[in-house]
Amino acid sequence: MDRRETQKEYQRSDSELEVNAKLFNVIYKRDISTKEKVKKIKKLFGKIPQPDINAQNDNDNWNISLHLAIERNALEVG
After folding, report:
1. 29 with 37: CB under 8 angstroms?
2. pLDDT tens across 26-47, in order?
């Protein structure tokens, strides 16, 4: 695999980045219940493109959504 193919493989479309950002935003919210977070996350996973559960948040030490959920003691969300 050459360098161009590798770069293309790791590039994400704006819609993919947007849905991943929405996933992180839901996890970050402190003003809604866990039940509401789970509802919003399920809704995100019902859309296309779906969030990438392995996407890393560059604003928070490159953690994935599961790491953030654990860190925030929100296991139901992760």
Report:
1. yes
2. 988 889 998 999 999 999 999 8
CA distance 72 to 78: 10
Give kind and range of the element (H or E) at residue 16.
helix 14-28
CA 41 to chain centre: 9
| pTM listed for this prediction | 0.73
Instruction: Tell me how far the alpha carbon of residue 22 is from its chain's centroid.
Output: 7
Contacts of 2-9 with CB under 8 Å at 24 or more apart are: none
CA angle 74, 35, 54 (to 5 degrees): 50
